[in-house]
Design brief:
Number of helices: 7
Strand order of the largest sheet: 1-4-5
Shape: globular
Structural class: mainly alpha
Largest sheet: 3 strands, antiparallel
Number of strands: 5
Order of helices and strands: HHEHHEEEEHHH
Distance between the termini: 38 Å
Helix content: 40-55%
Oligomer: single chain
Radius of gyration: 18 Å
């Protein structure tokens, strides 16, 4: 794009999902047969990023407070937010990516490879909720940093993504959406013509890029809440929150 940043985990998941979308739309198995080893290369990189072998894919960024400093960026498209280590947003996309690749392998009758990526998706799912669920809030934290801390910003978009992809147990998913709606009401958000914010709690200054792009000056992040990645709305991400409601019926 306009800069050359590495270590965005969603940049690996995205092409795998997009490849599945393309084949679903076109049934172009000749294209798929040519590209399948490249798709496996991307997926196998992600598998190697499960550095502690717990099933989740770890970012190179720690996600610890006060660690995101220029010129570095976080592990995802949310590059001004300090997400890293065990990140809920990217792992949800990676989960879908493994499922997509497993299905593409099946379509080429590559059953052994299909089983490999299906098993990786199963392992990720088994670790996801128990690692990222915040019992104090009843929501998913956006990420668990390398120091073990949960960074929970009451995120409709990240929680919505996980619910839509089936990563939140059914008995918890509806309750989680209810809690998010209560939080939306509590903060008096009403601009649904724009969508919903990616977070309903201001981002601590220590969890934001340390200089630039609306960096909070107050430690609690309230001075820039609603600006850029501290609560600024991005329409495309809102679709995950909407889809989550269909997923729970």
């Amino acid at each position: 794009c306009y800069w050359n940043f590495a270590n965005f985990l969603d940049a690996n998941a995205g092409p795998l999902i997009a490849a599945w979308d393309y084949v679903e739309a076109t049934n172009d198995h000749a294209w798929l047969a040519k590209k399948i080893t490249r798709l496996e290369l991307v997926a196998d990189f992600l598998i190697r990023r499960d550095v502690d072998n717990d099933g989740l894919i770890e970012a190179t960024q720690s996600g610890n407070l006060h660690t995101l400093k220029q010129p570095h960026r976080s592990c995802a498209w949310w590059d001004a937010l300090n997400c890293g280590h065990k990140d809920a947003y990217t792992n949800a996309l990676i989960y879908r990516a493994f499922r997509c690749l497993a299905d593409l392998e099946k379509q080429l009758h590559r059953d052994t490879q299909a089983q490999i990526y299906s098993a990786r998706a199963d392992r990720l799912k088994a670790a996801y909720f128990k690692t990222l669920y915040n019992e104090e809030t009843g929501l998913l934290a956006w990420w668990r940093s390398a120091d073990g801390q949960l960074h929970d910003y009451a995120s409709p978009t990240t929680c919505g993504l996980a619910i839509a992809y089936g990563l939140v147990p059914a008995d918890q998913a509806r309750a989680m959406l209810d809690r998010l709606w209560l939080k939306i009401a509590a903060v008096k958000f009403t601009r649904f013509d724009l969508g919903v914010p990616p977070m309903l709690t201001p981002v601590l200054s220590g969890d934001y890029i340390q200089t630039g792009f609306g960096t909070p000056q107050r430690s609690d992040g309230t001075d820039t809440f609603g600006i850029y990645m501290n609560g600024g709305i991005t329409a495309g991400q809102v679709l995950h929150f909407i889809d989550a409601h269909y997923a729970v019926g």
